[in-house]
Amino acid sequence: MFSFFKRKPKEEPAPTPQSVAAPASESIIPVTETVSATPFTAEVATQPAPASAPTADTVPAPAEQKRSWLSRLKAGLAKTSSNLTTLFVGARIDDDLYDELEAALLTSDAGVEATLFLLDALKKKVKEEKLTEAEQVKTALKALLLELLTPLQKPLELGRHQPMVMMISGVNGAGKTTTIGKLAKHMQVHGQSVLLAAGDTFRAAAREQLTIWGERNDITVISQESGDPAAVAFDAVASARAKGTDVVMVDTAGRLPTQLHLMEELKKIKRVIAKGMDGAPQEILLIIDGNTGQNALAQVKAFDDALQLTGLVITKLDGTAKGGVLAAIAKNRPVPVYFIGIGEQIEDLQPFNAQEFVDALFN
């Protein structure tokens, strides 16, 4: 598997007390651990064998895997790409072309601000560089979009904290729980021990789904049938500190940003995690369905205002005509995009690379 994370030297873990007291100001309900026992045999040997050592006969070579990913990425963004690139076929450089390009960008959900920014910069570039061919204008637009998206590209750093606590949020249907399972698997491949916290205590299906991912990856899952989601998160952090686990991933209940009482619950979970470990959660991720277009930007704004997001994962980009939403995010709320997903398989979730993304849009 090609490089997925940025590594940092691990800090020495803080001394862990024999017991962790629940904070008096928050309601904490004891929970129990559900330890999985069924190994997942796809890519990594079952623990305690090193999870980072897949064999050559079961894992494609890096170059082959890279070509496969780029091919799937291009296929996934084909609808968005078609709306943009067909405009330049035999086109004249005039106001009609700019009008059609504006419509195409808006249709791809690039948003008004990003669309106007790109068009203004493009017109200036065409004038200054005296571009006369449609293909030259297409190349210029590609360069401008790359410049806009590059600040979103950032690796998820492993090994800076022990444990690294990740709080995962998102609306129902965004692919949150599935994404947690994929990330957990990739982290194992990179030698990280993982613990999952089933903080969506309101939906039995969510707990069951996370438990299945735990069983597949031979990962401990902290869960309870009902009660306070913050209690699950607190207990998971305490368990990880006691056992020296590398990464804790806390699933949270899906909710709309307009559900203010539920957003307050997310803030509570964040506070309780911080009481369980100073500086945690170090990563607060929002999972976004790439097909929701401008609604995705609204979600980023609302969750960022409430939680101060550190990163995004954009899923379901396969077959979407709304791939321009990354431009809208870059222009309006440039939270780093750690990963993008284009399918159901584990290898269909990969780190966001601005150059690869733009190349796929203009293939």
From TrEMBL:
SUPFAM superfamilies: Domain of the SRP/SRP receptor G-proteins (SSF47364), P-loop containing nucleoside triphosphate hydrolases (SSF52540)
Enzyme's top EC category: hydrolase
Main location group: membrane
UniProt keyword list: Cell membrane, Cytoplasm, GTP-binding, Hydrolase, Membrane, Nucleotide-binding, Receptor
Enzyme Commission number(s): 3.6.5.4
Recorded catalytic activity of this chain's protein: GTP + H2O = GDP + phosphate + H(+)
Region (Disordered) location: 1-25
One BP annotation, GO: SRP-dependent cotranslational protein targeting to membrane
Function noted in UniProt: Involved in targeting and insertion of nascent membrane proteins into the cytoplasmic membrane. Acts as a receptor for the complex formed by the signal recognition particle (SRP) and the ribosome-nascent chain (RNC). Interaction with SRP-RNC leads to the transfer of the RNC complex to the Sec translocase for insertion into the membrane, the hydrolysis of GTP by both Ffh and FtsY, and the dissociation of the SRP-FtsY complex into the individual components.
Subunit structure comment from the entry: Part of the signal recognition particle protein translocation system, which is composed of SRP and FtsY. SRP is a ribonucleoprotein composed of Ffh and a 4.5S RNA molecule.
UniProt-recorded name of the protein: Signal recognition particle receptor FtsY
Top-level taxonomy: Bacteria, Pseudomonadati, Pseudomonadota, Betaproteobacteria, Burkholderiales
